[in-house]
Amino acid sequence: MLDTVHLHPPTVLKDLEEATNAIGFTMGSDYLTGSLLRTLAATKPGGQLLELGTGTGFSAAWMLDGMDAHATLVSVDSNEQTTAIPRRYLGNDPRITFTIMDGTAFIDSTLAQGTRFDLIFADMPPGKFHYLDETLQLLKPGGMYVIDDLLMLTSWEEEHVTRVYRLLATLEARQDLHITKLNWSSGLVIAVRRG
Is 30 buried (19+), middle (13-18) or exposed (0-12) by CB count in 10 A? Predict the structure, then answer.
């Protein structure tokens, strides 16, 4: 089985990639992560999805491709320049809302509103390396929490290696989650809140 063939990426991804290359942004999610996110989004018909870290919209495009007509996606980032790209190419889709806001402030305000999500993809430090407890409070029972970029790279600084191992140990110790670590793509964790 070859996991990198016949992925059928969303057609809009080509436009997103060209616009991303034009600004020199290099932090977008890869095709394997995108394919997984699309599949997970498809398991949440009518669901409320959250992306912490819009970037230039790669992962949002994959999730939208898997979502049904009644599901919604909130995508949060503090960088207006990068978020302008997905707004341009994905902004006409009524299922997605882009929020330009600091991740920590968004998590705080969403907790105060009592909003909960069926799937959270955390691809920014708030919600992943800090503010983890608060982010997981946003997850409905049976909801999925997904993080990527956990496979060690030689370019990582020692401080980042420590953050990754601390994060994994914290997730492994939680009694309210079932977790699966995937030594695949960029290194992922899928956690599900126990009901």
Answer: middle
